[in-house]
Amino acid sequence: MLNSIKSPQDIKQLDLTQLQSLADEIREFLIDTIQKTGGHLAPNLGTVEMTLAMHYVFDTPNDSFVFDVGHQAYTHKILTGRLDKIHTLRQKNGLSGFTKRSESAHDAFGAGHSSTSISAALGIAIANNIKQNSHKSIAIIGDGALTGGMSFEALNHAGDADADLLIVLNDNDMSISKNVGAMNKYLTKLISGKTYSTMKNKSMGFLEKMPMVHEFARRSEEHLKGMVLPSTLFEELGLDYFGPIDGHDLPTLVKTLQNLKIQNKPRLLHIITKKGFGLESAEQDPCKFHGIAPAQLNSNTLPSYSEAFGSWLNNTAKNNKNLIAITPAMCTGSGMSEFEKNFPDQYFDVGIAEQHAITFAGGLATQGLKPIVAIYSTFLQRGYDQLIHDIALQNLNVVFAIDRAGLVGSDGATHAGCFDLSFLRAIPNLTIMAPSDTKQLYEMLNAAFNSPGVICVRYPRGASEVENYMSTEQIKIGRGKIIRQGVKTAILAFGSMLTAALEAGDAINASVVDMRFVKPLDEVLLIELAKDHTHFISIEDNAINGGAGSAISEFLHKQKILTELTILGLPDIFTEQGTQAQLYALYGLDAKSIIHASKS
Fold first, then answer.
1. Options 49, 354, 443, 540, the catalytic residue
2. Contact yes or no for 266/165 (Cβ under 8 A)
3. Of residues 89 and 168, which shows the higher confidence score?
């Protein structure tokens, strides 16, 4: 049946029994495909029925589906004409792992970062009003994304807006799931129907003429529904609340969505799903199966930078009660799972709330504690004002462990940490370190923990060629190191670019420098190198504009040093997806590109 689905219109010809068979087929297809391509397995297994029901009832692209984060939209891609390209998921020149407007007219809004869907869908809904069309706008948001402050800003606006907005809350981890059952299905069908809504509006209109009775009726309704449904929060914000219903029950989903489709007020449907549904191993451990790598890529046994960071946290906390580790909902990805178990009183997962995480760390620092904020580079962008205003301006003692810096590979542009060196370098009071391997990361973290002020340690996704990384040494702040002595050309490598630099250095007999610090630069070392080298080549996995190479250029110009400088880095574009190796070659960050630069 799946091969016959070329567009959402095709599934509208099916009856509910056939629709359930299609759901089963899609789930089997996803399990088989994602194990080969890699990707977000558990989230997509949990949203098959929900996505099918939505496409069965609504009409994209006229109606807009705005997926939060977007990594749960694989079924949506399959139903919207991309089945034959699913095997290219997250690969170079293939389908994105997230929704992407340039990929399909059915992708109403690009996603990748969390908690954006309600804002975007509300914008679309209000635009529909202005354009006087009857199109529907639907935001699909998970309970995790709802912890993000931006979601509440949007809810606050939506409740006060005259907009035809439907919010589908996909809840896969809340205790309210026990309320799913036959009575709940009946109540939801009843209160989402046209008859109930008409009766409610008419009765409330009549009661408004008798203020005391109206207030009593309103409060009675709220308390009565509150005993059965978790509606009060959303209804106080001005949204009509429906649910919760079983997100794997297709007939109930379809009927409820049909009822909600004919309404035109801001409204929220609460559905309960099981992450990893249909695959027992994913159901038992949804965190492990949230995102999986292709089977053929799982052979690397060297410890990753994230693992080294997690090890450092554990070892340092044993003798330092002042160490406080903070993560905005990325415990496992940042290597903090063991720390959470071993030091629960020193560990804080604040949810998808990067801005809060940073200012929270600032508050801790004012009381003499040493906060370590573990955050992905791409997510640090979301807390930029807090980093400037609440941390750097006050020169507070906070360490930022910035993971996934540079090109991250298959997650693509939304998750690439391409801009951190540029946006961090402009901020006063910051020290910026870039380790070239996991042992150096350990030594930088040692130094950062024992140094005052705001210190950023940024490191890439993946592993380095170092097995034994633990060290008691501390790197000296602001000092680079000559790794290879050559002639004429000096390759100035930042972070993980050292490996390619050494390969190129051997080929062209160039000096190779592990710069290690972006701010402060080792200016003394640069002056010395300029005395016996005629050409500098800097290389970084960051945007060329405003990055580490720019810092070197500014210094040479200030000192009136005329040594030729070639800056290798990421061009002024949003990067593609693919393996890290493919992207390094594509953007000129491999040994071959360095050798070519030395001859130009």
1. 354
2. yes
3. 168
**Cα–Cα nearest to 465, from 334, 309, 304, 593:** 304
**Catalytic residue at 275?**
yes
pLDDT at 283 over 80: no
Q: Is 354 one of the annotated active-site residues of the chain?
A: yes
Comparing CA positions, the residue from 177, 357, 197 lying closest to residue 261 is 197
CA gap 148, 353 in Å, rounded: 5
* Active-site choice (90, 100, 274, 382): 382
Read off φ and ψ for residue 222, nearest 5 degrees.
-60, -45
In a domain, 328, yes or no: yes
Q: How many domains does the chain have?
A: 3
**Model confidence pLDDT, tens digit, residues 350-396:** 988 999 999 999 999 999 999 999 999 999 999 999 999 999 999 99
Exactly one of 275, 370, 404, 439 is catalytic; which is it? 275
497-510 pLDDT, tens digit per residue, is 999 999 999 999 99
pLDDT digits (tens, 9 = 90+) for 286-304: 776 777 777 544 445 799 9
Domain co-membership, 409 together with 486 = no
Give the domain extent around 121: 2-284
Residue 382 catalytic?
A: yes
